[in-house]
Amino acid sequence: MTRTLLIVDDDVDLCRLVKDGLGHEGFDVHVANSPAEALASIGEHEFDAVLADINMPQMNGLELSRRILDMRPDLPILVITAFGSLETAIAAIRAGAYDFVTKPFEIDQLAVAAERACQNRQLREEVRRLREVVTAQPAFSDILGESSEIRRMCNLIDVTAQTDSTVLVTGESGTGKELVARALHDRGPRSSGPFVALNCAAMTDSLLESELFGHARGAFTDAKDSRVGLFVKAGSGTLFLDEIGDMPPGMQAKLLRALEARTVRPVGSDSEVPFRARIIAATNHDLEAAVEEGRFRQDLYFRVNVIRIHVPPLRARGGDTLLLAQSFAGKLAKRLGKNVTGISSPAAERLLAYPWPGNIRELQNAIERAVALTRYENIVVEDLPESIRDYKRAPLLPSGDDPAEFLPMHEIEKRYILRVLEAVGGNKTTAAQILGFDRRTMYRKLDRFAEDKSG
Asked: What's the burial of 59, exposed, middle or buried (CB within 10 Å: 0-12/13-18/19+)?
């Protein structure tokens, strides 16, 4: 993308030098030799950034910055000042300039500063656009996103919602798997029925069996009355079994039998009770690996994995991070009674750079903290948690030319495998497919990495 700049300076030779130099760096540079000419040009043309000298006759760069920002508050201004004039540079920033460059400067230095200013404007535009998107009614009211991954997922939800097939929703913790299950329910013919959810993790066999299948009166000590289980309570609606990968082994066989027979037997009863609910399961585990390791029944895996919908991690969704952050900021500001309308560009840069291991849940918590603490209308970098403010990804390979920094091949392979594994949320099956390994090779390498670490 070509960046369009306006340079404002009464020094004709300097303007020609900068125009030629930045032109070779890929910028489209326009020149104005007076503030009046600059203001007229800004009124007629679209620029990505302005470079303005501080010392000019008729109107100095500080006053010009104020005038430009009155016309175009979204336009970043780089002021050019003499070396050592720190007070002047600070005054320029206070006047609304984005940044400053000191003379003498190198063209490549100026190009870096100009590119950063252009990116800042682009990010501001994106934040503004996303603010408008959030206020509009999305097709999926609770699933926000414009990334290709989310569009594909929503298309699959639309098609799958019209069927009665059992669905397995996969994805990392915090990605919004229950939102997907609710969307499948709400957009299908069962939407008039109840949506019943149960988290299968941290439940004993007996408690889980009673919750799902119900129990007869007197089935155990506290069973003073009979109770209908969730399979039946869901009626003609949807039963959502969250974290099915954590279901105790003893319950897996009973669940398989219920799904195959479409009936349940309440604890302490001799009678089978039919159920009509559609079943949606979800897990943050790699069930194929769990089957191979003997932690999950293969026949149950085939039974629940009729249609799979994978929810991508937040780090794979690009600009959706800002869209979600803007939505959270608006809702939380209203709830907390704060006048917070958006997110500053530097804060947005940090949000985009962070890998979000806790996904949407972590983002929501971070934005809630920022809204609660901020003193401004826009969330700034200082409002974000320290882990996000200071995050820097370690390079996969050395960036310098010092031979001492280079790594042996086995260490490069290790870093690359672990990076791929991180990108797919720890799913060993998916990582093995990307890397071109079979799963046994993948497990063998991971075991070796663990041994190296412990050794």
From this structure: middle
For the residues 66-92, what does the mean pLDDT come to? 78
Percent of the chain whose predicted confidence (pLDDT) is above 90? 38
Residue 250 CA to residue 253 CA, distance in Å, equals: 6
pTM above 0.85, yes or no: no
Fold of 314-389: Helicase, Ruva Protein; domain 3 (1.10.8)
d(CA 32, CA 52): 9
373-376: long-range contacts, CB 8 A cutoff, minimum separation 24: 374/338, 374/340, 376/340, 376/344
Beta bridge pairs of residue 101: 80
Architecture (CATH level 2) of domain 3-133: 3-Layer(aba) Sandwich (3.40)
CATH superfamily, domain 151-310, is: P-loop containing nucleotide triphosphate hydrolases (3.40.50.300)
Rounded distance between C-alpha atoms, residue 266 and residue 169, angstroms = 27
Which residue shows structure tokens 């999950």? 296
Name the least confident of 40-49, 210-219, 239-248.
210-219
Please say whether the beta carbons of 74 and 121 come within 8 A.
yes
